[in-house]
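Full entry
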Amino acid sequence: MSESDTITRNAKSNLAFTLMDLPVEKRVHMAQFYAFCRIVDDIVDEPGMSADERHAALDRWEEVISMRVEPTPGIEEEVQKLVQEVQLDIAPMLELIAGCRSDIAPQQPKTRNDLLAYAYKVAACVGITSAHVMGASPAAKDYAIALGYALQLVNILRDVAEDCRKYERFYLPADDMELFGVTCDDIRNQRYSFRLRQLLAYEAALAEKFFGEAEEYYQKLSVEDRNALIPAQAMSLIYHTILEKMQDDEYRIYDRRYSVNNFRKLWFLLRARLGSVALPSFPSVSEWSFIKPQMTGDKEEK
């Protein structure tokens, strides 16, 4: 078993689960890309490393994917082979490294624009590369970006307590927290309140907006692109269900970590495979016109 297979299997992530739908070659390539993403993220999050060591490890990965160094046997060699075989544009991968690097000395985003700039690097760029590896055409880029934003926002909402407790990180925009009267001390001390619920519902509305936008982009893609992106659509179903669970439960983020069991994941993968991916609970983009256009920004220029 390759090192990328081992990393992917051990991660037991939602993405790893959905990869079973892919043809063997694409599944191998996605496992290699997922392993790269996992390692870069772990460099920042795993205990026992100094800030300088973390930066040096990320520097090494920049050199690996840029083909500036000879790879070591194992995952470095696999990732270089992936870049060459699939002819990857490494710009999104470098953006991902930059986004992870910013978490070494994290700063709370002040505005939603700041949050989305971060989410573009650590999630939308993952989506862009994943779509290419899965075999989708460049026409899928807008879909990948919108879905990346949606998934990252759900992650942020779900992990508010864990990010604070483990890493002293706050991803909810400072302006939004001030708007609803929620402080970082409230989160540190796990104060559950009406104000917190309103804040999280406000951020959930932004996630819903991007889920809806991604679905509209998806429906406009060719049949070939939609088929290539079945794992991504299954991820959309999984994460939207997590969001709905939080909404129905009034965001009890201090009491539990929301997830979807494997049986439902398998059902969502089947739904995506059968083409039953229209999600009526997703609002159309026009229904979210109260969200100012500049909040989403034009991250494609990054």
